[in-house]
Design goal:
Helix content is 35%, strand content 21%. The chain has 369 residues and is an alpha+beta fold. Strand 2 and strand 3 form a beta hairpin.
């Protein structure tokens, strides 16, 4: 399959300028710059006007830009100038009058500095212009995400087969990261969450020194990043001993909530309604106050992207969107259970991209030692 079509992406973005009330856009979000140019460095911006696309960077990235963005104009600053100086130069050359800035990425200080620098044009705050383009993945992006899912699945298979009673959360995390790298990942999609027993009740716990034998429950939230920068995001709970009746009860409730929510995903359905399905199942079972986060989110170049499946969402599902579905119940001081899969919205429904077994009986892990 051919690679990404950056010029097509930039042209799609240009078509949104009129509605945003701008005639140029200064793109400063690192992942947004990468999405529109293919440049994998940082500290660089893209100035996009009606007929111009200029990368603003510094001498550290000059050679890299020549290799990754050979068809783009690049303005390179030295140590005696700022990126704002480059922006002023390009704005004057393109005669841009209303220059959009990414208010979700530009700091207040950077905004004030630019205001004093770009004297020939007016700065217009914008939000989510590139992020909304990124919500719907193209075929190449979906191929990369499938790779990220596959690598993550192979990584957890190694961890599952190597579990021992004396392993710590940190040791499991390190083995998982190393395994994913050995299968082709450039790294984890985020710091893996590995929680034994009570640690699993912390939705974003950091792996510590609790050992597997200290509880019969182990939660792992992990993902892989491909060399192209695309990610996956999965969560599974493993029973490394005999679960309590409450653990089984909660597991089955969370699984039911997840599966019924997934079945409801299809084009045109409101994201808030899918969140409501899962949240209702958990609330009806008496655990509503123990599920405090949104049901899911988009992902791709970033592990959290702008599609939100939550009580605050105002979006509808569209074909090509990829989201997580990850209900959870967290009982402080006892345990937490979350089950998460990666879902592609298709033309007539959805496809579950991740195939790690998730039924209750599948969660039991025999020890090798």
């Amino acid at each position: 399959m051919s690679g990404p079509h950056y010029e097509q992406r930039r042209n799609k973005l240009r078509k949104r300028f009129r509605d945003a009330g701008v005639d140029a856009l200064l793109i400063s979000g690192v992942s947004n710059v990468r999405y529109l140019t293919g440049f994998t460095g940082d500290s660089s911006w893209l100035y996009l006007a009606a007929r111009d696309a200029v990368v603003l960077s510094d001498t550290r990235f000059e050679t890299q830009l020549a290799g990754q963005c050979p068809d783009l104009q690049c303005e390179i600053r030295d140590a005696a100038s700022t990126i704002g100086d480059l922006a002023r130069k390009v704005a004057a050359a393109t005669r841009s009058k209303r220059i959009g800035i990414e208010s979700d990425h530009l700091t207040l200080n950077q905004f004030h500095v630019l205001q004093g620098t770009l004297t020939s044009g007016e700065l217009v705050p914008t939000s989510g212009l590139v992020e909304r383009l990124r919500e719907v993945k193209d075929k190449w992006e979906l191929e990369q995400i499938r790779k990220a899912v596959e690598i993550a699945e192979r990584g957890i298979a190694v961890v599952r087969s190597c579990l021992t009673k004396n392993q710590t959360e940190v040791e499991i995390r390190n083995l998982l990261e190393a395994s994913m790298r050995s299968f082709g990942a450039s790294g984890p999609a985020f710091e893996p969450i590995v929680g034994v027993g009570p640690t699993a009740a912390l939705p974003h716990a950091h792996a510590g020194h609790h050992k597997v034998h200290e509880s019969s429950l182990l939660l792992v939230d992990w993902g892989a990043t491909t060399e192209s920068g695309y990610r996956s995001d999965l969560t599974r709970v493993f029973f490394t001993g005999k679960p309590t009746k409450q653990m089984e009860q909660v597991y089955r409730i969370v699984l039911q909530a997840q599966q019924e929510a997934i079945r409801a995903i299809m084009p045109g359905v409101e994201c808030i309604d899918v969140d409501r399905i899962a949240r209702g199942i958990i609330a009806d079972a008496g655990f509503g106050s123990y599920f405090g986060h949104g049901l899911g989110h988009g992902f791709g170049l970033d592990v959290h992207e702008s599609v939100r499946v939550s009580p605050l969402s105002k979006q509808r599902f569209e074909p090509g969107m990829v989201v997580t579905v990850e209900p959870g119940i967290y009982l402080p001081g006892r345990f937490g259970i979350r089950i998460e899969d990666d879902i592609l919205v298709t033309a007539d429904g959805n496809e579950v991209l991740s195939g790690v077994p998730r039924e209750f009986d599948d969660a039991f892990v025999p020890f090798l030692a």
